[in-house]
Amino acid sequence: MAILEIKHVSKFFGGLAANSDVSFTMAEGMIMGLIGPNGAGKTTLFNCITGYYPPSRGEVLFKGRKMNGLQPDKVCKLGMARTWQKVRPLAKMTVLDNVMVGALCRTNSLKAAREIAQEQLQVVRLKQKAGFLAGGLPIGERKKLEVARVLATKPELLLLDEVMGGLNPAESEEIIQLILDIKRQGITQMVIEHDMKAIMRISDRIVVLNSGEKLAEGSPEEIVNNQAVVDAYLGSEH
Ligand SMILES: Nc1ncnc2c1ncn2[C@@H]1O[C@H](COP(=O)(O)OP(=O)(O)O)[C@@H](O)[C@H]1O
Ligand SMILES: [Mg+2]
């Protein structure tokens, strides 16, 4: 069964169609890459999928259930979690406490939340920074903290919005390995990323957005050989 079905989703901001009649489905356990130029509507689609705001048209089904307009805590309890392109940790709280906030979506016990948070800090290799203030972390560690926070919500579907943005090659490689580890845990992922080499390595399939519309969908190989994708996106920069 598809874990996620996106059916004819459009999102309008005034006269602008940030998403326009986008449809695709995701099978459980896969990694779907979501690519396209800046302003293509990738983050908006994440917002529609996670119920952050309802689509203007169409619908999103997660495990067969309609997501339109659900509150974020409800979305999290159903098993969907996303990272934000602009990472905003709770700067004056410790790294451990930030991850505990994620874990509290699953448990009311502070002790249990602390244990979950410690486990996830281990997974992202940030355990040595547990007692540091989140606001003082360099960007690479903030991104890992963001991933630990969402993993602590115990998601079945994880949506990662440019988690490699602003990272150096060594830091990006760590994130790639982390994404592959998460896949081995059986968690389904949708990944927005500009680094084409990275997206080709990790994705089972790729959806390309352009001006809000789905331009193409296919295997990484099909996408790099798709003339429309090369013309709209891959041609010059990548
Ligand atoms: N809350 C909003 N209000 C108005 N316009 C928005 C809003 N969010 C996104 N947009 C616009 O929608 C388009 C798609 O943006 P976005 O989804 O952030 O693209 P991407 O993530 O692919 O770079 C852009 O033109 C952007 O300016
Ligand atoms: Mg974006």
UniProtKB/TrEMBL annotation:
Entry keyword Ribosomal protein: no
Coiled-coil intervals, chain numbering: none
Pfam families: ABC_tran, BCA_ABC_TP_C
GO molecular function, one term: ATP binding
Gene3D superfamilies, alphabetized: P-loop containing nucleotide triphosphate hydrolases
Alphabetical keyword list: ATP-binding, Nucleotide-binding, Transport
Source species: Geotalea uraniireducens
Domain ABC transporter: 4-236
The keyword Transport appears for this protein: yes
Protein name (record): ABC transporter ATP-binding protein
UniProt cross-references to InterPro entries, sorted A to Z: AAA+_ATPase, ABC_AA/LPS_Transport, ABC_transporter-like_ATP-bd, BCA_ABC_TP_C, P-loop_NTPase
